[in-house]
Amino acid sequence: MVVCGDDGLAHRLAAELRVVYGEQVTLVVPPNSRIARPPVVGRARAASAALLDRVVSAAVGRANGNGNGNGGTGPVTGEGPRGERVLEAVEATEAVLAEAGVERAAALALVYDDDETNIRAALTARRLNPRLRLVLRLYNRRLGQHIEELLDQAAVLAVGDTDGGAGDTSTTVLSDADTAAPALAATALAGTGKVIQTDGLVLRAVDLPPGALAGPDADQGLCTLALFSANSNGPEPAEGTGEQGPRLLPDDAEVRAAGERGVMVLEQVSSSAAAAQDRRRVGVGVGFVPLLVSLFSRRLRWSLAGVVGCVVALAVALSVVTGIHPVRAFYYTLLDLFAIDDPAIGQSLGRQILQLLSGLMGLLLLPVLLAAVLEALGTFRTASALRKPPRGLSGHVVLLGLGKIGTRVLTRLRELHVPVVCVESDPEARGLAVARRLRVPVVLGDVTQEGVLEAAKIHRAQALLAVTSADTTNLEAVLYARAVRPDLKAVLRLYDDDFATAVYRTLRAAHPRAVTRSRSVSYLAAPSFAGAMLGRQILGAIPVERKVLLVAAVDVSGHPQLEGRTVDGAFRAGAWRVLALEGRPVAGDYQLRAGDRVVVAVTRRGLAELSGRRVPPAHPPDSLG
């Protein structure tokens, strides 16, 4: 396996392939001075540290004009204690790919942060080895579809598909932002289900509080996916504390013995068409109210409501005083309101007073109508401008950062109809256009400056979601927000594992009642990329505290762990569980047979076993580090 990249995802993916699946990996990265210290997985930390020492030594030798014999123009190679190979090169040129062994490799992952770099390297790699399985990281979805079709067509033409020879030359385009965004959005919202949606299927998992499965009448969902740690109401347990950590895919005995531990259950399995129909049915007839809300401010809406209430009260009073029919009284009131000349001369005193009051209301109505017209015109005129947070906003999510990840998270939150206020320091950030289109309030400013989070109404928010690319910025935002509201729920995107551990222990001691969560984008995305390199389709990743549960599509044929067994009989605690069959729910007594394609919830270790890989005895847990 060959992995090329320039950030944490490349190192995480290489560690995933090497440690979890036991693959031989060649990692192509830029010179060490160009990238931050890479995150590592579990017990691969010492090996990777030694490996990086070799790379640094090689880079120093090249800078001094010795050591590599190529005058500093060629790639620098290093060898790890476990046989890992690291190739140091600025970019993945044809010479670098050839040096990495792409012509003999089974799969190549191109996970550079720049889409153009990945596309250029993919075209070169496909020419060097038409049988190569390619996995690309692209942010642009539409471009990714076209590139996937183009590279697959090139492989078929080069290899020929008359005997199925090109069947293993697939191209898979993935986005780490799309993979991580649903998990990040769900983590920030209390009581929100985790939804995984793919072609033809929607899976929804929900978190239940401790004790929710107790009692004979408790709703246990379709199956139990995970048990949370014993301290599920508070921060996640730190290492070395002796607390009972989360358990993925427990069996029935473990669920019964869960006691006061929170659980995650599979609530619903449905088709995408049915889910879309439900959304359309819910949305019928409610489009006029959001239109009024978007056009007119809250103060103006209350003013209009007050005027309408006064008109109704005047009509009722006129009907009582004069004894005429209420409909005619309402009509007379409107005539008076619009100053239609019909003075009540010679009529009762009450009628005359009501006519004067109606005329006064008409005068008051004019400025209100004028304000409504001007405000509507201003709304249309400033549709391309960024909105400011409204005064009475509360219960919203403050989203810090509108880069690649933040933009996808924003889209996901708005799909869930969650109110959001964004904070971004770069006026040219890619997510500002999305926020403008979705009419989401944005505060432009540096979050480290005083008053920025206050402008985002952080004191009335339900959660803070900090997803910038800088760990220190995310941490500073959370610390400042906690100073304003100690009980605020905070979700951080942290790059460095050691730094994340120190942050957790400190925040746990300082704010024992507050909920803090950390999510690594590379950790959530790496299993999908690794599965694609092994020919597996990973549909999504569900974070369970500091572990991750994968949802994958698997062909039953060729898997003795599944073929010929019933759905219930194929279940292996802590490894995998069959959730659906070919886009539909499946009964527990259904016997799986060759030709079936199932959707399974699987741990990383279970996926390695289903892929036919020998799991190393020193395999780390399904956690961040």
Explain how this protein is built.
There is one protein chain. By secondary structure, the protein is α/β, with parallel strands linked by helices. Strand 8 (194-198) and strand 9 form a beta hairpin. It is elongated.
Q: What would a concise description of this structure say?
A:
With 625 residues, the chain is of the alpha/beta class.
Topology overview:
Blueprint: E1 2-5, H1 8-20, E2 26-29, H2 44-63, E3 76-79, E4 85-88, H3 94-100, E5 107-111, H4 115-128, E6 133-137, H5 141-159, E7 171-174, H6 176-188, E8 194-198, E9 201-208, E10 223-227, E11 247-248, H7 252-256, E12 263-270, H8 272-283, H9 288-295, H10 298-322, H11 326-337, H12 349-381, E13 397-400, H13 404-415, E14 420-424, H14 431-437, E15 442-444, H15 452-455, E16 463-466, H16 471-484, E17 489-492, H17 497-510, E18 516-518, H18 521-533, E19 537-544, E20 547-555, H19 567-570, E21 576-581, E22 584-585, E23 597-602, H20 604-610
Parallel strand pairs: 1-2, 1-5, 2-4, 5-6, 6-7, 13-14, 13-16, 14-15, 16-17, 17-18
Antiparallel strand pairs: 3-4, 8-9, 9-12, 10-11, 10-12, 19-20, 20-23, 21-22, 21-23
Helix pairs in contact: 1-18, 4-5, 6-13, 6-18, 10-11, 10-12, 11-12, 13-14
**Overall pLDDT:** 77
Rg, rounded, reads 30 Å
Q: Specify the overall morphology.
A: elongated
Number of helices: 20
How are the strands of the largest sheet arranged?
3-4-2-1-5-6-7
Helical proportion, percent range: 40-55%
Distance between the termini: 22 Å
Category by helix and strand content: alpha/beta
